[in-house]
Amino acid sequence: MHIHNYEKIWLVLAMIMIVGFLTTVTYGATAVGIEMISDEEDTIDPGALDEDPRFAEPRVEQVGENEYEAYVVAQQYIFSPDPIEVPANSTVTFYVTSPDVIHGFQVAGTNANTMVIPGEVAKLTVETEEPGEHGIVCNEYCGSGHHVMEGKLIIHPEDEFEMEDDE
Amino acid sequence: MSGDAVVTEIDHDEFNPRGTLALILVYFAILVVMWVFMYFVEFLGNDLTVIG
Ligand SMILES: [Cu+2]
Q: What local confidence, expressed as pLDDT, does residue A167 receive?
């Protein structure tokens, strides 16, 4: 088969683009360390969150020098804790679950975003940088109050952040 | 057009669709700019990226 030179040009460009896309995604996954949110966390009884050591009391806990874990419950139509308060320049892992229906957990304007499925625990780790406030929105329709379901993530300057002792 | 006189006959390789080529290059350029912008600027530049 004979291929016209111009056709060769655009075939090659299309190939370059496909390889480029794949390279970009590979670069993100390896060099930058972008992760997908998996389902590898153990399942949980959505009707018994109050007996779960993590979710009975939704909270932020310090687990390392600069590492924090946030146990978050998303339910019709609130997130708890609200606000979620963490320090800047730290590593924060969110564990999010739901006792009722499917919700979303999205830190507005950022890439921190997951589905929240009853019976499953969504785990996502982020690195906070600048202090500031972000809204948290539920982005899965979850009932008549879905549109008012919001929370807040406050990133405090490191020197102003103090963990409260058990309330 | 009378249709009875063939003016020139050209073969496959002599016909060069320059306009089509130009259009494809413009599309390609737009896609490359969008690709770089969306991934490297919008996505990677968006704080709170999921790393675990
Ligand atoms: Cu919701």
A: 45
Residues A35, B46: C-beta atoms closer than 8 Å: no
What CATH number was assigned to the domain covering residues A46-160? Answer: 2.60.40.420
Task: Compute the distance from residue A136 Cα to the ligand 1 centre, in Å.
Answer: 11
Sequence-distant (6+) residues with CB within 8 A of A25 are none
Q: How far is the CA of A82 from the centre of ligand 1 (A)?
A: 14
The structure tokens 């700019």 sit at B33
Q: Residue ranges of the domains in chain A?
A: 1-34, 46-160
The structure tokens 């390789």 sit at B13
Is A110 exposed, middle or buried (CB count within 10 Å of its CB: 0-12, 13-18, 19+)? Answer: middle
| Whole-prediction pTM | 0.82
